[in-house]
What we know:
By secondary structure, the chain is of the alpha+beta class. 41% of the residues lie in helices and 17% in strands.
Amino acid sequence: xxxxxxxxxxxxxxxxxxxxxxxxxxxxxxxxxxxxxxxxxxxxxxxxxxxxxxxxxxxxxxxxxxxxxxxxxxxxxxxxxxxxxxxxxxxxxxxxxxxxxxxxxxxxxxxxxxxxxxxxxxxxxxxxxxxxxxxxxxxxxxxxxxxxxxxxxxxxxxxxxxxxxxxxxxxxxxxxxxxxxxxxxxxxxxxxxxxxxxxxxxxxxxxxxxxxxxxxxxxxxxxxxxxxxxxxxxxxxxxxxxxxxxxxxxxxxxxxxxxxxxxxxxxxxxxxxxxxxxxxxxxxxxxxxxxxxxxxxxxxxxxxxxxxxxxxxxxxxxxxxxxxxxxxxxxxxxxxxxxxxxxxx
Length: 345
């Protein structure tokens, strides 16, 4: 009997030993995985913080460029145009190329690539010019000149007129609601507007008003939403925007103007008016200089990327951020080619 049970006991002991080994290996694997995960999380957080600091430096660098441009332009014509240093996009380049010889990256440091672009926010039609507030006796209305400019822009871009009709109606309603005191009753609807939605603050948010994604994408290089009323800079605007903003102008004349502008920018409205065939230009709607600029920056560190966009207000020598935010699902900045698509003679 003892002889028959001995092999069984040895088999049970072997199985028990194998189970113990398996359990220890499993626990060791879990511990190793958790340690690896903690290292990865810590590395990702460190890279995120480093990327944030580097992008902060890049954004401040753009502010410095715009400030120096303002100081240099103040001594001359004060015009802003696409031949200035701020208008040159920064193609993706290694960060080490910007460092001095004694500031080279240490061996083992991750490779960092930086790219960015500054665009003139006043090179586009500003939707903030659209609504004109009225006195307390009646509600405001949409500006007819701006309405006509947007109608021409939709036409030249081949966008459906129904989208403009929708946008006009919703923009007017949102503008009236946002300017109605809390608790007051709207004369047009008879309803309380305390919970009414505010106007969009950025172009992608126009989808809130019912515009399709395709329409917003195609409009993005040509329109903007700034915190105040601004004229269009004819030195930086696209042919489409010039065509839309100058009454009675045809697209061919706008394209010829852009080609002429590429050879030599304009310093004042009378010279620009002559180049446009004598079309009247008002300082309310057109200018040669700009105060608002949009900055886009992208930093790539190994397999991780971080992007930010910002709106900058340049008031004489004071250059400040109006807003800054990380890019997540936001339309990319307009390419420089969209501003220069008709610039080549």
